[in-house]
Structures
1.
Amino acid sequence: MSNLETVVTEIVDEMRQRTDRGEVARYIPELARVDPGQFGLAVIGADGTVAAAGDCDVPFSIQSISKVFTLTLALGMVGDRLWQRVGREPSGSPFNSVVQLEYERGIPRNPFINAGAIAVTDLILSRHQPREALGEILRFMQFLAQDTSITIDEAVAASEHRTGFRNVALANYMKSFGVIDNPVEYTLGVYFHHCAISMTCRQLAVAGRFLAHSGRDPSTGLSVVQAERARRINAVMLTCGHYDGSGEFAYRVGLPGKSGVGGGILAVAPGRASIAVWAPGLDAAGNSHLGRIALERLTKRLGWSIF
Ligand code: DON
């Protein structure tokens, strides 16, 4: 067994035994049904070596992790013009906060809080019908993960559609400032659906490889984005990827990372590895509780913090 495999196996064994598991997201009823006892971890090294253990092949709702990929796609479509619609500063507020939008004239602080991600989705939608925009996002995920079996969990999307009142408020509020171009219900329909994409840790780690390797997927040699853009996406993940928990994540883990309320985290060790972890129970900021602890263990043992 390689050192990486040993570390991954030991972390998974430890995490499976822990009883402090956090709380599953309840505001999306379908996510409240997920068994909090699950834990998966997948790490893909620069040479393509995979170390994966636990529930690494169980699909889960990627939720806000999808925002990394919609940001990548939207930057590809509209370039740096995107930053006129969305900022790139940490918000210091919860992911679904409304308060800054009024002071800052409807411009969300960054593309990872819900308001920012809804504005990014609106940019992707601008060239398409909702169904086409969603197809584009899903195909992008399938392409990056090299797996055409990846799908959207319609039950999760419908569940959020019924209860996503805050997102409806955020989208309408931004619309009043002219930050949303399309009918709010179209933009939100695409947003709820891309959040409801289901993937495994293994698939997600494959999809994140371009961010760890200067914009290029080392397995195919294909350039997904320029190296400079990959660096910048990683910078926004580091500073904003965990909302008001971003400072704590950088302090403890020391890697760019993006969480989702499904309990997943995608983390990027530049030049070294793409990492996906999943533990459904969340901390108070809505980030995976054991996922963060596992990543802290991993980077400490392997010396992978970027600092
Ligand atoms: O819009 C929402 O509230 C969810 N679809 C996504 C939020 C989320 O994943 C926050 N991340 N930890």
2.
Amino acid sequence: DIKGFVFDLDGVITDTSVFHSQAWHQVADKVGAPWSKELEDGLKGISRMDSLEMILKAGNVSDKYTDDEKVDLATEKNTNYLKLVDQMTPDNILPGIKEFLDDLKSNGYLISLASASKNAPKVLSKLQLADYFPEIVDPKSLSKGKPDPEIYLKGAELINLNPEQCIGVEDAAAGVESINAANETSIGIGDPQVLSAADVKFNDTSEMTLANIKNQMD
Ligand code: G6P
Ligand code: MG
């Protein structure tokens, strides 16, 4: 029986995936790497330094930058990203998410957060959703990022559940892969072609209700 939900943040709870993309696009332009939908989708769920490396590789310029210069590029991206986060309000919560979280709470489901973002606590506080997520996986504690199962295994552990008792919710292919490898049930929200590996699929957050999930799991 399902007893808990482990959530990704960016692109699931809120529309910050657009902000991440915008800030990375600037970096890609700066280093002369081509920007594409494939690159944009591939960056979702990936840690800050791994994302930078993917962009540099896409432009064949990884060798042109020293480690210090790479840290500077990633820091500049984060500064630009945080300028966008600073303007966030609860209006940036994606459609239906608040209602879904309330429904989970009133039905006794446990909730944790499995985001690769070091900015997750800040984003949750801007959304005034921090109270819903007392348990957050610390991305600094991870030895491997998504698609490795580690982050979703820790998300289950934080709420004292076995992976089989958890549903993971994602907007990224790397994240769905991580959930599946952790032996949790996966929900993919967004482009069904990108998220074909998900057990349960929704085009949009507004479609994610307990009833609709049960329907697809039967
Ligand atoms: C999430 C986002 C990625 C982002 C990563 C690291 O997984 O989907 O786009 O790169 O977190 O975020 P951070 O805020 O720590 O740079
Ligand atoms: Mg995401």
